[in-house]
Amino acid sequence: MYIDFHTHLDFYKDENALFEQLAKFDGIIVTSSVDEKSYKKNIQIQKKCDSLGCSTKIISTFGIHPSKVPSAPKNLKVFDELCSTSCMIGEIGMDFCWYKDASEAEQERVFRYFLQHCNEEKKYCVIHTKDAEEKICRILEEYPSAKPIIHWYDGDKEIYKEFIKRGYMQTFGCETCRSKHIQELLRLTPLNLMLAETDNPDSEIWLGGFDNSVGLIKKVYRDIADVLKISVEKLCNIIEENSTKIFNSF
Q1: At what angle do helices 15-24 and 36-51 cross, to 10 degrees?
Q2: How far is CA 63 from CA 17, 20, 124, 188, in A?
Q3: Residues β-bridged to residue 170
Q4: What's the chain's average pLDDT?
Q5: Which pick of 46, 114, 137, 193 has the fewest CB atoms within 10 Å?
Q6: What burial class does residue 158 get, using C-beta atoms within 10 Å of its C-beta: 0-12 exposed, 13-18 middle, 19+ buried?
Q7: What does the pLDDT look like over 62-99, one tens digit per residue?
Q8: What is the mean pLDDT of residues 155-170?
Q9: Mean pLDDT over residues 136-151, rounded?
Q10: Does an H or E element contain 235, and which?
């Protein structure tokens, strides 16, 4: 079984083509949201997939991406009910590289809101860390019962080692085959903390590739397995075991 732990299914423009792919893909897809509208769209996709009898199992999660912080309300309590409906939280975090429309303080305010929820509920959360790794590392110490899943980390190695020391799960994706630094981080990662993702549909294209299909996760598995010098079959078993531990927490 292939498990893609981080996608954005609501970003696909051609819904018919998407459902054709979902009908053929035999695996699990965790689709993150960037805001309330995104979450509701992902729920619609999940329900339609179920009603069509697709072999794909979709898990939709709610979060506010750093890029959407400027439009977040002052009173974040309006999201309490949505948080409670979401078995995990994601995508959340901070980004001091690409998304500067919101101040660092405002990004932190939104990030902490979700972390507080995850801390209280002992819930997993998918975290975006671009150029905010050190600050996020410090903030996460204050929420010891939250369960971070660090998405596509490519930052400082020493901070990464601290994340590993704390037992945070890590996703590896499309850049694995392209980045020596990420390959080094991958080799540092205990097998029991390893997950795979595509960040579909945009990331592979952004990196210069052409395939943003649901099946792209199979290539990601091959890339990870090549770096670790293990079989794809063994990696499938590792990621399935790691993912099942997370899914069993719902």
Answers
A1: 50
A2: 26, 27, 12, 29
A3: 150, 194
A4: 97
A5: 193
A6: exposed
A7: 999 999 999 999 999 999 999 999 999 999 999 999 99
A8: 98
A9: 98
A10: helix 232-247
Reading the block at residue 242, the tokens are: 């790691």
**pLDDT over 90 at 100, yes or no:** no
Q: Tell me the H-state helices in 152-231.
A: 157-166, 180-188, 203-206, 216-228
Q: What counts of helices (H) and strands (E) characterise the chain?
A: 10, 8
The per-residue pLDDT for 102 is 92
Biggest CA–CA distance in the chain, Å, is 49
Instruction: Give the separation between CA 147 and CA 167, rounded to whole angstroms.
Output: 9
Rounded Cα gap, residues 95 and 30, in angstroms? 21
If DSSP states are collapsed to H, E and C, what string results for 103-145?
Answer: CHHHHHHHHHHHHHHHHHHCCEEEEECCCCHHHHHHHHCCCCC
Count CA within 13 A, CB hemisphere, residue 112: 11
Q: Tell me what the mean pLDDT of segment 139-158 comes to.
A: 98
Q: Which residues pair with 150 in a beta bridge?
A: 127, 170
- For 54, residues 6+ apart whose C-beta sits below 8 A from its C-beta are 19, 22, 23, 25
What residues form DSSP beta bridges with 30? 59
Residue whose structure tokens are 């079984």 = 1
Work out the average pLDDT over 114-136. Answer: 98
Site of tokens 């609501």: 10
- Read off the tokens for 103: 């101040």
pTM tops 0.70, yes or no: yes
